[in-house]
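note to self: dont lose this again. the chain is below, predicted strucutre after it. 207 aa total, dont forget to put it in the shared folder this time
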Amino acid sequence: MARYTGPKLRLERREGTKLGLKGKRGLSDKHPFKRGKNYPPGVHGPKGRRRMTDYAVHLREKQKTKRMYGVMERQFRRYFEIASKSKGQTGLELLRLLETRLDNVIFRLGFGATRAQARQFVTHGHVLVNGERVDIPSYKVKPGDEIQLVTKLAQNPVIAENIELQPFSVNWITRKNNFSGVVDAIPERTDIDSGINEAYIVEFYSR
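---
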C-alpha cells in the first residue's frame, strides 16, 4: 500500500482528533475542528460518526497511532510483533519502538515541524548520528546517541522557525543547541503522548 499523500486534515477528521500532521500551523482558525467539522469527511456530514463496535474502536486507535507516526501498516505490524516478543508490556514496548525512530527524535527535538518534515530531513541525508550520516527514518536510536543536523540544514531559517513554534519539553532527550541533541534514556510511558490507548492496539492485533 502506498503512503497517503492526500490532505492531512482529512485524516484528522477521520480519526476525530489532531494528529500533529500540520504542526503548529495546523491549529489556525481554519482548522476543521475549529469550524465545527469534528465528524468524518464525506457526503454524510455530521451523521458520519456513529456509535462504533469494540472492533471499530480498536481499529481506529491503531489507525490513529499509525498515522500519527507516519508508519505503513506492514511496518506497524512488525513493530507490534517485536513488542509482543519483548519482556516488557507489549503496548509500552510498541510505543517505545515508535518513539525511538530517528525521524520521531528529529521531530521531538523541534527541528521538524511535523514528523513528515523530520522524515524528509532524514531521507535527504541531512541528519548525523554520532557523526555518521543516517538516511533511514526508522533507524532506532539508543541512549547516548548524539543526533545532529548537517551544517547546511542547521543554518536554514526554517529550523529556527520550527524551534520557535515548538517549545522543547522532552524528558528523555537533551537539546544541546539549535542543531543537535543527545538521547539520554529510553522513554517512559509518561514521556509519550497520553492521547494514545495502546491497550486497544494490543487487543486489535490479539483478537
